[in-house]
Amino acid sequence: MSETQIAVRYAQSLLDLAAEKGQVEEVREDMLLFAHTCDANYALRLLLSNPIVNTYKKKVILNKTFSGKITALTTSFFDIITRKTREGMLYAIAKEVERQYTTARNQEDADVVTAIELTDELRAELKQLAVKMSGGKSILLKEKVNPALIGGFVLQVKDKQLDTSIQSRLRNLKTQMTK
């Protein structure tokens, strides 16, 4: 069975159990925290997927890292995963939980990068644009500021991207002038 299939099954089981206990939002937040922690600390991802490191040590590291920050349900899930020696799959499972969560709510993630912080008015306009790009789905807008854009924005919804940044325009102009 492929890693993707395993992640899909574990994520679905976790979300089903969370739904039974009325903790879907909390478990989602826990898994987002785990994924963000792994994104910020690549060494943690490497450690969890390293077969040389003892499973017990991985369990202790997970408990110490996330103790008091995640729900008892998610802690139990981590324990089950480590008992089955699938801790290397946790990152993929966390990403799959988010994918299944947004799919179930007919939501799409939209990433927007701007040169400055968005005002409420601009945020609303970009959200409407993202809704059009997604085919009318509900949008969860993730904002990022990158001053190197100089001005404009880069909006991405799934595989569609709209780049109106000045940085991009300057790059295109440079390419045209060097031809």
The geometry reads as globular
Overall average residue pLDDT: 93
Through-space gap between termini: 50 Å
Sequence of strands across the biggest β-sheet? 2-1-3-4
Q: How many extended strands?
A: 4
| Count of domain modules | 2
| CATH class call of the largest domain | Mainly Alpha
Question: What structural category do the secondary elements indicate?
Answer: alpha+beta
N to C succession of SSEs: HHHHHHEHEEEH
List the defining traits of the structure above.
179 residues; alpha+beta; Peroxidase, domain 1; 2 domains; 61% helix; 14% strand; globular
Topology:
Layout: H1 3-21, H2 24-40, H3 42-49, H4 55-66, H5 72-83, H6 90-104, E1 107-114, H7 120-134, E2 138-145, E3 153-157, E4 160-163, H8 166-177
Parallel strand pairs: 1-2
Antiparallel strand pairs: 1-3, 3-4
Quick gist of this model?
The chain is α+β, with helices and mostly antiparallel strands. It has 8 helices and 4 strands, in the order H-H-H-H-H-H-E-H-E-E-E-H.
Can you walk me through this structure?
By secondary structure, the protein is of the alpha+beta class. The chain has two domains: 3-103, Peroxidase, domain 1; 107-177. The protein is built from eight helices and four strands. It has helices spanning 3-21, 24-40, 42-49, 55-66, 72-83, 90-104, 120-134, 166-177; strands at residues 107-114, 138-145, 153-157, 160-163. It has a four-stranded mixed beta sheet with strand order 2-1-3-4. Helix 1 packs across helix 2 (24-40) and helix 1 crosses helix 6. The longest helix has 19 residues, at 3-21. The mean pLDDT is 93.
